[in-house]
Amino acid sequence: MKKNYLFMITFLLFSTVVISQPVITYSGNCPQVGDRYDLALFSGNINPGSAGGNQTWDFSDVTSDGTSILYAISPAQTPYGDYYPDANIAFNYNNEEAYSFALTSPSEFLNLGTASIQNSMEVIIYYSDPAKLMEFPFAFNDTYDDSFYGSFSSGTLEVHQSGTITSVADGWGNITTPFGNYNSVLRVKTQRTQIDSAWMGGNFVYSSTTNYIDFEWYDPDIAMPVFSIAITESAGVTDTSGTYLTTPQSITELNNRSNNIMAFPNPATDFVTVVFNADNTNPLTITITDVSGRTIWHMEKEISLTGRQSIIVPLNNIRTGLYFVNINDGKTVKSQKLIIR
User: Fold this and answer.
1) Spatial separation of the C-alpha atoms in residues 12 and 172, rounded to whole Å
2) Could you give the 3-state DSSP secondary structure of residue 243?
3) Annotation: CATH topology of 257-340
4) Start-end ranges of CATH 2.60.40.3080 in the chain?
5) Residue 333: pLDDT band with limits 50, 70, 90
6) Can you give the pTM of this predicted structure?
């Protein structure tokens, strides 16, 4: 997943909702310094579904096989900011020694390159011809084409990286991820061909071509895609992986979710994280009940502050099936479906 860097970068609904067409904008979808995005990772053969308008994409059954945190930071906070003087934002996964650098503006989002430690060697790729990651605004059926070029050297080894990008907003509708439901999203399909060629002492060494097809679903009010699928093909070998957001990015987003309560992952196996908005400081009773209303698990929780709260619930002793997570503050009861596998 780390090789993709910026390129990587709810519950069940039982009816189709007619919605308006969303638009990706700079104010709503461009990351800002200080942002943090909690992601679940997955792999396997995932069908991205159909293109077109008013679609319903259901990925609620996708199983996560890892997690990652993406931090948006100032380039000056990195060891490599001087290599990217035009960058106004940088990205880092999990506080590891790997960074991406970008230039954002109200009209576009450009990738300027990456810097990382690989096999104890610094690899600093600067794109003299940046790669366009997004145009603003971007709506259904909009498209753009771009090319990019960068290079890095180490001793007598010089590597050139070039390629082409074609992006199209090929669908809109609602999407269900293992984390939640988003009722107005725009899907962007990006096809990217990347050619890496190596030279040593002025002599050609090798060349490799990698083809990428990325599908990304954008909520108009969230900077990161809420769900993404990356299909990679190189030398006849194809690999599929992806990510989805696992935390609300703001209290506003949380307030827009069903009943102000979410649980992830969903379906869950060993544990579930329950995220909710506390409206008051009353003591809470948190329960998991089965479909007959019988309480399977419960706890009492004191609340000292209102606002966003989260708890982790162990599921080791609960059988597989359909349940409900309930939060009672003495005035209201909030519930959400939970599938345990």
Assistant:
1) 18
2) strand
3) Immunoglobulin-like (2.60.40)
4) 257-340
5) confident
6) 0.71
